[in-house]
């Protein structure tokens, strides 16, 4: 293992200082050759992670022909954003209005000023396109929206007077006794054998068989298929959630890759996508201690599915600052202090190499230098800064986990909308 002071020297040699988006051009050019660019974040509540990803996203779309953005968000709410940026939502007057579609906790992840600026840009970009096939899309990859996805399916089937609507209503009725409480459903399914698996699988099969009949609306077949996929995989996720945390994680990340595949097929073979998710999802699990627990993630699965050369993962980190998070699940969000990085963590060493923003491209020349296992900070929607050293650092081989790493020296909290 390399000595700590040698790490600092290597970082100084290979890192590139940046001040604005223009300085990231070499990184963006390097990433642009991939089919999928995975943009991470070390927290769900840091403004600079969002704004930097947004600038990279704009460049990839405008200059390198990327077709869509897919995020760690619910499909139904993201699909409303997708409709908005494509000019199909007279009911929304502005980006903030459509982002209020994100009303499930933690809404701040997507209903915030930083995302609103990107949504405005995407809508303006689409307005300048001459043909529909050039319109950029915005989609959600997550698995949590079981009830919302079921409602979306029923609403569409009713609107189109489809004979499949009765089957969809029967599935919805199966879930109704649990009052939208996922944990109640999970306990009932896991311990009492009261599950809706047969009903949901039957609906998924029906929608798949009849997908060509779902026409007339924007991307109707895609919308129906992914909502049905969400409902099916959410059932499995909540079932596993109360008995096997690792398996529920795997179900969720496999679902995200499956949903991504649906979107990719919709846009065609030449399509290229940009994925926004936490570092713990986009950084290859095999380069962390996740592999010891038998867990996989989007970074690993996409590399395996599409080929290492077709996936470009960019991790993010910070040395200190502020963040939006909550003290426990379901609590109100608050601004919290992110303490200085733990000694001998990746963030600490990058800081020691110079207290400024920088990025590192991992190449054949330098990969071996950053291959040792060191702690890499990860902050979730629930965060306790005072206990950070006990569980907020993921042992990581940085150059195997990512293709590039962006360090923001001092960060500030995200700017969420109030509801």
Describe the protein's topology.
Blueprint (H helix, E strand, L loop, with lengths): L3 H11 E3 L7 H7 L4 E4 L7 H18 L3 E4 L3 H11 L9 H5 L13 H15 L9 E4 L5 H14 L5 H11 L6 H11 L4 H13 L10 H22 L3 H23 L5 E4 L2 H4 L15 H9 L4 E15 L8 E5 L7 H7 L5 E4 L11 E5 L10 H4 L1 E5 H4 L2 E8 L8
Parallel strand pairs: 2-5, 2-6, 3-4, 3-5, 6-11
Antiparallel strand pairs: 1-8, 6-7, 8-11, 9-10
Question: Your description of this structure?
Answer:
The structure is a single chain. The protein has 17 helices and eleven strands. By secondary structure, it is α/β, with parallel strands linked by helices. It folds into two domains: 4-141 and 270-411, EreA-like (biosynthetic domain) (EreA/ChaN-like  fold, 3-Layer(aba) Sandwich); 146-254, no CATH class. Strand 6 (311-325) and strand 7 (334-338) form a beta hairpin. The longest helix has 23 residues, at 245-267. It is globular and about 70 Å long. The model has no long low-confidence stretch (mean pLDDT 93). Pfam families: Erythro_esteras (PF05139).
């Amino acid at each position: 293992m390399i000595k700590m002071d040698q790490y600092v020297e290597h970082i100084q040699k290979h890192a590139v200082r940046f001040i604005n988006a223009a300085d990231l051009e070499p990184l963006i050019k390097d990433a642009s050759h991939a089919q999928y660019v995975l943009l991470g974040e070390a927290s769900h509540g840091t403004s600079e992670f969002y704004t930097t990803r947004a600038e990279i996203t704009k460049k990839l779309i405008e200059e390198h022909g990327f077709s869509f953005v897919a995020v760690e968000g619910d499909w139904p709410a993201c699909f409303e954003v997708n409709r908005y940026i494509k000019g199909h939502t007279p009911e929304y007057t502005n980006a903030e209005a459509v982002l209020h579609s994100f009303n499930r906790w933690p809404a701040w992840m997507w209903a915030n000023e930083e995302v609103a600026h990107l949504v405005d840009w995407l809508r303006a970009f689409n307005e300048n396109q001459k043909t529909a096939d050039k319109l950029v899309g915005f989609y959600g990859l997550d698995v949590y929206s079981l009830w919302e996805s079921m409602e979306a399916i029923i609403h569409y089937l009713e609107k189109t007077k489809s004979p499949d609507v009765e089957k969809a209503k029967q599935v919805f009725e199966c879930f109704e006794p649990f009052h939208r409480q996922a944990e109640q459903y999970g306990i009932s399914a896991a311990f009492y054998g009261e599950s809706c698996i047969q009903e949901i699988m039957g609906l998924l099969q029906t929608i798949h068989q009849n997908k060509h009949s779902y026409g007339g609306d924007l991307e109707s077949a895609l919308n129906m298929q992914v909502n049905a996929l969400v409902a099916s995989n959410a059932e499995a996720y909540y079932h596993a959630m109360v008995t096997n945390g690792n398996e529920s994680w795997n179900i969720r990340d496999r679902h995200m890759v499956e949903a991504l595949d649906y979107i990719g097929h919709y846009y065609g073979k030449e399509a290229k996508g940009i994925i926004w998710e936490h570092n713990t999802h986009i950084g290859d699990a095999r380069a962390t201690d996740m592999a010891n627990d038998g867990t996989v993630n989007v970074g690993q699965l996409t590399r395996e599915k599409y080929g290492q050369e077709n996936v470009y993962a960019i991790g993010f980190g910070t040395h200190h600052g502020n963040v939006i998070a909550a003290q426990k699940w379901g609590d109100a969000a608050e601004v919290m202090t992110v303490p200085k990085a733990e000694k001998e963590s990746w963030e600490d060493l990058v800081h020691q190499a110079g207290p400024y923003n920088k990025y590192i491209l991992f190449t054949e020349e330098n990969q071996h230098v950053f291959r040792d296992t060191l702690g890499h900070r990860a902050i979730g929607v629930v965060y306790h800064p005072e206990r950070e050293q006990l569980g907020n650092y993921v042992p990581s081989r940085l150059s195997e986990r990512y293709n590039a790493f962006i360090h923001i020296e001092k960060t500030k909290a995200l700017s969420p909308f109030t509801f």
